[in-house]
Amino acid sequence: MFSENARKELEAILKKYPNKRSAVMDALRVAQNEGAGHITKADMEEISRVLEMPANEVHAAATFYTMYRVNKPVGKYHIQVCANISCSLMGADHIIKHMENVLRIKTGETTPDSKYTLSTVECLGSCGTAPMMQVNDDYYENLDEKKIDELLGRLK
Amino acid sequence: MEKVLLKNYGKPDSHKIENYILSGGYKGLEAAVKLKPDSLIQLIKDSGLRGRGGAGFSTGLKWSFIPKDPTIPKFLCCNADEGEPGTFKDRGIIDHDPHLLIEGMIITSYAIGASNAYIYIRGEFVFGTNRLQVAIDEAYAKGYLGKNIMGSGFNLDMYIHRGFGAYICGEETALLESIEGYRAQPRKKPPFPALAGLYAKPTVINNVETLSCIPSIVEKGAEWFSKIGAPKSPGPKIYCVSGHVKKPGLYELPMGTTVRDLIFNHCGGMLHEGRALKAVIPGGVSAPLLTPKDLDTPLDFDSLAAKGSMLGSGAVIVMDQTTCMVKSAHIVTRFFSHESCGKCTPCRDGTPWLTRVLGRIEHGEGKPGDVELLESLCTNIFGRTFCPLGDGAVMALRGFVKNFRDEFQFHIDYKRCMVS
Amino acid sequence: MATVKINGIELQVEDNTLILDAARKAGFEIPTFCYQADLMGIGSCRMCLVEIEGQKKLQPSCVTPVLHGMSINTETPTVMSARASMLEFLLANHAMDCPVCDKGGECELQDMVHKYGPRKGRHADAKFKFHEKDYALSPVIIKNSNRCVNCMKCVRVCREVVGRNVLTALNRGDHQEATSFMRTFLDCDHDGNCIEVCPVGCFMRLPYRYKTRPWDLKGVDTICTYCATGCRMVIEHRDGTVVRARAQMGVGINSETLCARGRFGYDIMNDDGRVKTPMIKKSRTGGLEPASWEEAIAFIKDNLATVDGEKLGGIISPRSTNEEAYLFQKLIRTIFKSPNIDSSVRFKADAVEGFVKATGMDEGGASIFDCMEADTVLIIGAHLSDENPVTDYIVRRISGSRRMNLIITSPRAMKLDSSASVVLRHLPATEGALLDAIILNLNADKIVGSEALTALKDTKLEAVLAEAGVDAETVKLISNKIAGSASVGIIAGTDFLRSPEGLPPLGLLRELLKATGKKLTVVPVLDRCNQRGVWEMGGHPNFGPGYSAVKAKGMGTEAMLDAAHSGGLEALYIAGADLVTLAEDEDFVKRALSKVGFLVVQDTFMTETARLANVVLPGVSTGEKDGMFTNQEGRAQVIKKLLPPPGKAKKDIDIIRAVGEAFERSFGPKNPALVLDEIRKEIGMYSEVSLTFKNKRNPDNELDNKAALVKGTHSDLKIGSWPRRHVAADPAFPFILTTGNQLFHSGRLSRRSEILTSLSKGAEVEISESDATALGLKAGDKVRVKGARYEAVVSLKTKKGSKPGVAFIAENYNEAPVNRFFKKGEGLPRVSITKAL
């Protein structure tokens, strides 16, 4: 459910567009940020009410774009390692394996303490600094084992 | 060559409006609002600027399709949904020189009569989104956006629309669907966006790099621009170099720089001494790869097309001799099937099939006839999909299979990789 | 016109014709999955790719219009290989569980693979599975997404035609799945149009599941009996059990669509509670006992032989065929020499005459498609979305596909509102005041037309606006839209029959629009399947066959009941109408009927009315006879027999004739074909009407078979004068109660359908959301509806955007008989609504 701040943010978003429906992507993003990094049925129902569009169409939009996580909670740190071509050429496989070893989870899993979720993603547009990954909103580039270990040390 | 697009890239606080203005920014806008919109469109036509998103269509011509009726609302959409693997140039401009883009967009909106402009930026670019929003706010504060811009009587509002993980939004009609709050599946054309685009109103959709060329064309003239680089696709071009080179990164060079010059001169050659260059993808993963024999091909729209490949987004991905082509083909094809929107049959059901077969071959489970199966599926997909995404998948894969067929066959015959 | 070449054959087609249609015209079939004539083209399945000379890529013929001079090839090796490849792709992602799939044998994917497919499948890898078990989306819809071909017709028909928009595609790529919100149970119209348009076994009928193979079905192509829209449908049985009703693509005005009643109400034909033998009540005190037909007919003859025609009446159901109605009125008028015949239980005879005149039914058939061609269409007095769902679909589809003004005026909000350019909520039974206001606006400057129209100038606009409870601005807007249109369509519904005060202004509006040179099309909408036909056969006290004049007006249902109540009706013959549950004031009706000297009831079920009869004659249901119906537009259509009558039940037309023959041996004609001949001869309106079924939509996508429309005639019917009844405000009873049909039912007949009853939520009272909020009530609450005469406890239903102060209870509930709230001769009753304890 939307907090007061989220509602205000949504109001500002609605001003960008000539119709309410256009705000659905932003509304879903706000809901995801508000929730534990994922979107629930109740969130979509509320968005449906606020934007006056059918709930099924909110759900349809939410499942089209891969960054929305419908009923799929993630850990405090969502680590997304790029596995596309440039990163792969520069050793993404190795980075992913190292991550799995350090975090003791497989790709797609969350650590039992709900701290880290490890995923692979398609190209994040940072190919000149491959291999790279995104942790929550931030990019980490030119990765190697040492950098990763240091970073994980910082992400408590 | 004097840099145009990356001239502020890497300078301290280059994203701030004061620094942008100090470096000569918003001069183009000042000049533009003194011109009639029609003259402005003619100027861009004369410059020979071709869209940097991949298709290479004449930008001025695209603008000229917008109806002149002042009572019809019009929109400008900036395509900043940079997602073609290997590409990171738009992000470079947005992160380091957002005002260059904003200025280009204001001039474009003035030329086509748009009073609302949207920047469709991919969701992962959180840093860039924040930078851009700050820059937009700065531009409002300075009177470059909002009402009566620079006393011209022209009004413009500019907004950011964040994507959230869909490569297909780079396709212009899918991008429009996405802004309207729908699933981003491409629309059928006609009607073309110039007549019925965003909210069914006339709309121009231009790439970040394209729009960033505009201020300097206005400032320095069409002739200046048309004399840079290749005659038929003039202007500066940002090449995004990644993979096995010493100095990967963004390179702004005249359009038509050769592959050899780019890799061995500008980028310092191959990453590992003693490893030979095996293949180069010259324009993002949709572009069929080139082999060492093609190193002297100029990187421009027409020269690459003549070689059966394309300039695309200008993303140059370099692979050395240790690269497994089956694995690379699998990664590239998997990307397309992951990003297929699901609308049309051949792309939706064909690209995952290709991926499955490639995965099988890569993991030593290939069967005799699989290479022929891949080729046949490519034939069945190519030219039959709703939008170019499926064609992109096929062109890429065909490049791999055509040039490295023996590697695929080796994987099938010996259940292991030929190079590692 | 454009000249094009298709596979070398040159032909001329209209500009902008789709290549697909041009090819069909030239005789070449192009296979498709996602194309459907009535839906917006999406060009996504790629089955219809063709070669256009001079173009490098194959083009989708379903979204590409022809250009003059185009040369198109639809059967080259490239095209054929493209088709085969699309099928191979679809199969690569298909469940391939044909042996257990209900669609097997009539699956478009199977058929197309058979015709165009690759002979050998090459896909050898694991497939993505959406789910293990099929899942239900509704009591009537079950889903298997593993079979989906992604044509999205389900999503599109739900959005573009039905207007519910409860289905969408989720996810993307090969994980794309057309389904409901979170795959949850749907709160929708349950019409199953998603099932009908599904080319494969993805959307399926739940009640039909695993019941049969399609090739074991026997069916007939007939007309739906649940409202007067007149939808063509095929009903099918296996071994005598009806298991399915379905629409046919491009056939009938409804094309592929049906509503829930039509598609799922077929199970009443399997109801075992039928009257299967004649019954007679030998003594006043005794009960009904089984008898032979000979005994029953002789019993009728004995009791009716001496009855004075003036003291005898006949009432025939508006669900009867034209042949039955014609013969029945002939029986009443010529054998019994009685002028007393009616076919409406709920509507006053004079109101019907006025309605016929005001809507111009006597001027001949008026196609809904012609009506929807108008610049402005006004819907008034009709709750189309609930009462005539497929008419609602037609209006939505056409209004969504062209530029026009759709104006909806109604007290209650309806689904169709979202398609309208103007929506106006007025108070119940004030259609007249509203029309007055529109006329005054239209005619403000100069009064033209008849005396009555001129007389209106003394009416004060403010007064009629207040009476209707509407704002001046919206009415002005509506009037301006009408004034600015060269052509106007009016869709007028049964509320005019319930409150005939609206009829004179409706007549005046027609007169005014005609006088101002506008092209006008009026389509009446009715709720009983053959109401119009039965009227046109002369099933009415005020007019004879073809709206001909009668020597003297007879008694209508209401007058007959009054006469009976005062002991003045010696005999009454009711064919198929359940008066007790339908006429206003149930207790009065029961008392009246029990005072009728001799009551003959002919029906399929032992209804409340039949229980009061001296003789019960077992008739047949519509699936057990052949005959003609005339729908609300005046379109004559044929119904066909699917099953034999149960037990000793007889076709109604044979019963009517047998009764007639008992009195006069020559009574006839002797068989239905001859009755039809006599109808054509006697009733000019029907002399040339075409009863040939078009079995396929013609290449121009024409659903509108104009040859089936009845002709106009000259009648001297009168609209009559109807003084306004004012429903006085009463703080003790703040709501005005209205009635009509609800979405899943038609009268009480459909209550016998178990499937339909499972879809409707039981007895409900509907009020506006704002009223509910003010009363502290919410949807689903049990509430007490209290009137001066009757009270009932029902669930509350709320509707956003309905007129405050209006309550609605459908006429379909046995558990809350709404007619008990009404008092004969009075206007709409007032009620209070409170939370039931």
Please describe what this structure looks like.
The complex is a heterotrimer of chains A (156), B (420) and C (837). In chain A, a hairpin with a 2-residue loop joins β3 and β4. With 156 residues, chain A is an alpha+beta fold. Helix content of chain A is 45%, strand content 12%. With 420 residues, chain B is of the alpha/beta class. Helices cover 43% and strands 11% of the residues of chain B. The longest helix of chain B is centred in the last third of the chain and has 18 residues. The mean pLDDT of chain B is 96. Chain C has 837 residues and is of the alpha/beta class. Chain C is built from 26 helices and 35 strands. In chain C, the strands form nine sheets. Chain C has a seven-stranded mixed β-sheet with strand order 15-14-27-26-25-16-17, covered by helices on one side. In chain C, strands 31-33-32-35-30-34 form a six-stranded mixed β-sheet. At the A-B interface, α2, α4 and α5 of A face β3, β5, β8 and α13 of B.
Rough shape of chain C? globular
- Average of per-residue pLDDT values of chain A: 95
Q: So how many helices of chain A? A: 7
Helix-strand sequence of chain A:
HHHHEHHEEEH
Oligomer: heterotrimer
Most extensive chain-chain interface: A-B, 42 and 53 residues
Compute the gyration radius of chain C: what is it?
28 Å
Distance between the termini of chain C: 71 Å
Structural class, from secondary structure content of chain C? Answer: alpha/beta
Helix content of chain C: 25-40%
The radius of gyration over CA of chain A amounts to 18 Å
Main β-sheet, spatial strand arrangement of chain A? 2-1-3-4
Strand order of the largest sheet of chain C: 15-14-27-26-25-16-17
Low-confidence stretches of chain C: none
Instruction: State the end-to-end CA separation of chain A.
Output: 27 Å
Beta-strand content of chain A: 5-15%
